[in-house]
Every structure is written in structure tokens, then in C-alpha cells.
Amino acid sequence: MNNESWLVRVDKSITAASYVKASTIPTTIRLNKSDSLITGDTLFFAIENRPDQNAGIFAVAKVIDRRGDQVTIDMDHTKLKGGKREFINESAIVREEMFKSWVIGEMPFMEPIRLDRQVALRLAFLSSKTGKDYTRADSMRCLLAYLECKELKIGFEGNRIVNQVALETGRLERSVSAKIYNFRSLDPSQSGDGLKGIADIDEKIWNEYFNPKTGTIDEVELREALVKEEFHDPGIFLPGEEMVTFFSYATINDGDDRQLSARRVRRGQALLRRNLKVIYKNSCALTGTNEESVLEACHINAHAETGDNSVENGILLRSDIHILFDDGLITLDNDCITVRVCPLVTCPDYKALNNQISTRRNRVEDRHKEIILERNSQIGWLSKRV
């Protein structure tokens, strides 16, 4: 049985900080209608608004055991701790689409409410990052978001770019927007203030990639640096990754090599997709499609044969193009730019892609070109110009 996540509204007569402090060891609490809870489930504890405490989520725990309505829990003190910084304010999360209907004060008291997977993943990542400083990668993603909003001439709040960065960094949308405003205040071509006391990390990132001669950010260098920053980070959380989640406590038998290998492949695939989205600016390399739900990480040379999950061996493709690519019916020419379509393909929409110019990578690495050449050497029809 798969573990689930639940929200529990606790007694408002105690403070969030004292609740967490009192639970330094496994603690037994009484929960109403708790029959569906099983060992390993995650509980997010919430408190309603009170004079000295805003409403919000203040702690995370795992279910250790349940006997009737008596539930033994173990607080996860590496996450939220009930303090001012380590607290997810209701007023902040309700600005986001998936939480907009939440009113903690109207939720049943001491009764677990089942959370859907998307909400549970969002809260898991938020709880791991709330109260912690922005990392270099977080700041770099916010700078890219600023550049994209500036290019599209859209605001810095409530759009898909801000939403995506919030999901990828485990930050609240409000926090990401504040970072973007800060980057605008550092941009000599723009007018406007950011927050007082811009974080050192933001100023450092800006200065690293800002070219005073051109008055612009070196976006190519920024994107490539972000990929390197994240690709080798073993602790990175991948929101939306179905098989390896933040609160996956299931143990793996070290002797079961196949299970361990499958887990690594799934994680590698999700991380590859995340980084290819950075490289290709969230667009299919061959069609330019930017619909998030249909973009997939494709291995140029099959991972099953090479074990290569590197970005040099990857290309971001629309799901249907991915199938054609894997079947050798569509590819990039040896110049790594021109799209080539097999003459046997009859669909007009696909045939029209032949000899079109693909979405360029920031920079074509030598290893990436070698992999393309290696792949093309095995495609017989490619030598016949059409």
C-alpha cells in the first residue's frame, strides 16, 4: 500500500513552536477519524490564526504506529520548526492556485485530511526549503525568470514563469517574485526598487553574469552554469518525479541490483529533463513547442546501452517527436542544427520539418556533436539527401 500525506489542524491553545519542541521524541496523539492512516504516512500540522501566531503549516511528522485513535508520530526536525522563519504562512500559500480554497480555521479539528499527490509534493518541497537561504541555483533560476519576464514584457507576479520557478526551487511564488524585483533593481537599464537589503547571493550572481560592456546578462553562460550547478547535486529534489519523492522512506535492498538500478534511472531521467528544459528554454528542440506537459527528455544514444544520462547525450522533444526520434525516423543532421526526416514518413506535419532549423542549444559542446555523429552513422537513410 502506498503511503499518503495528510493535513492536521491542531489545538490553537498552544503555540506552534511549543508543539514542535514538546515532540522531540516519538509522541502519541489522539486523532479523530484516523482509520486510514498507516505507518509511514506524512502529517503536515497546521494551526489557525491567533493573536500571537498567523495561520499556517508549522511542522511535519511521520506516522510510526496507530492503535485506534491513538497515533504515534515522529517529528521531522530537519523541516519546519514552528519558528517565525520555519513556518509556511496561510496568507502566502493561498495566493497559489492549488491552495486558493484553503481556510485552515474552517478545517476539522484534529482530523487528518488527505492531500492529493500534487499538493503533498508541493508542501514537502516547501517544508524542506522554508526558512533556509536561497542557494546559488535558486538565485540563478530567479535571474533567468527575470530575463524571461523582461523579454516577454510581462509582470513579475502570478504568471507561469514565476509559478514554474517556485515549483522548481521549493519557494513560495511571493518569495520568487520578490527576488525578481531585486534583480530588476540591479539592472541599469531598468528603473524600480527591489526589497531593502538585497541578498548577497543575488548581487553576487548578477555580478558574475552581467557584462558591463553590453549592459546585459550573459544568458548562455548563466544557463550552462545552472545545469552544472544542479546536475551534480545529489540532494536536489525533483518536484513531479513520480517514483522518487521527497518523503519516500521505502528502503531498497542493496542486494537487489535491478531495483536500485531502476530507481537511479528514473531519478536520472527526471534530472535530465529538468536540465534540458534550461538548455532549450522550455521548448522542443525540433518543433519549438513550449507546452510543458508534452516535453520529454530524450537520450540521443539509448541509455539502456550506454548508461549515459548526461546533458550532452540529451535532447528535449515533444512526446510524439520523441517516438519518431527513438525509431530513427527523425534526427538532427551532423551540423547539430538542421532537422532531417526519413523519406518513409508520410504525415505532412512531420515531413514539413525536414531541413528546418532546430531550436539551438546555448552552445554545441564537442561531446554532444560526437554523440550526434555516432547516432547518425547508424541511420542508413540519412546519407541520401532529399
What does this structure look like?
This protein is of the alpha+beta class. It has three domains: 5-115; 136-217, no CATH class; 284-383, no CATH class. The chain contains 13 helices and 13 strands. The strands form four sheets. Strands 1, 2, 3, 4, 5, 6 and 7 form a seven-stranded mixed beta sheet that branches. Helix 4 (136-152) packs antiparallel against helix 8. The longest helix is centred in the C-terminal third of the chain and has 23 residues, at 257-279. The N and C termini lie far apart (55 Å).
Please compute the radius of gyration using only Cα atoms: 24 Å
How many helical stretches?
Answer: 13
Counting helices, strands and paired strands, the structural category is alpha+beta
Which stretches are low in confidence, meaning pLDDT under 50 for 5 or more residues running? 240-267
- Strand percent estimate: 5-15%
Helix % is 25-40%
One letter per element, helices H and strands E, the order comes to EHEEEEEHEHHHHHEEHHEHEHEEHH
Q: Which whole number gives the mean pLDDT? A: 83
CA(first)-CA(last) distance: 55 Å
Number of domains: 3
Shape: globular
**Strand element count:** 13
Largest sheet: 7 strands, mixed
Annotation keywords:
7-stranded mixed beta sheet; alpha+beta; single chain; two-stranded antiparallel sheet; 386 residues; globular; 3 domains
